Amino acid sequence: MQTVTRNWFVVPVAIVVLGIAGASRLHALPAPADPGAYGQQNGWEVPPQEFNEVQRRGFHDGVQGARKDYGNGRRPNVNNRDEYRDPDDMPRDIPPDMRELYRQAFRRGYSVAARNLWGGMAPAPPPPPPPPPPAVNYEWQWGMRGLRDDAGRQGYRDGVQQARTDFRMNRRADPDDGQNYRFPPVPPALAESYRSGFMRGYAVATSKLSGDADWQLSGDPSTWAPPDRYTEIQRRGFREGIEGARRDWGNHRSPDPNNRDEYRRPPVPEGWWRDYRRGFRRGYEMAALRLWGD
Fold this sequence. Notes:
With 294 residues, the protein is mostly helical.
């Protein structure tokens, strides 16, 4: 009878005074894990070593998203998170071509956190994401030459993506009318650098998607020939774009066709402005890549 009384007494005491040192029986009972401390003890918040920087960012953001849902008493569902569902709510510094990698890693981080926070309520983990592309093997990376800061390189990638979209949708090539060009997603002090990169990326991608040969980057730019398919107006724009880039280079201005009056208001009948500007952009950016990239 005494044994029963002693066991009956120890169990509620263990429940009420859990964590008080000194009662030897209590040391054998695990304390409930605090979500923050649990992650540090078990390492589940650490992204896989093979992840690149974008994937590590996605994994970390997924863990934090799960923590927020847990703290707000919501059921585990990665689609609760705006930053996962909507590209416009993703971090602005994630390049468009890396967003799917970011989402895959976000989903994985959320799932890992959910298993530890909600336990059996957590969804099954997603399949591991495909290996990331090599960081140095970005398509047409040669076009980034001379873009000396992250804003310019981000602009280049966004310009390439915009050109792909315009080409796929059969829209006219008009980069300076693009949303990101007009309202760069960078601090105001970096807007000029972003626009320079955007215009370069757009020009490179447009020419490659159109089947043009590789850009000629050696020799005297005044001897460079425009693509054979160019009209006479486009050829004129090409030659004057090269000259405009040379003048901007000599005046220590950042490379951007919109620096040039002849690009903003072409010296041809208005009905031919589009063709002139296309040739001008190509000549200007070829010369800019050579001048500012050396």
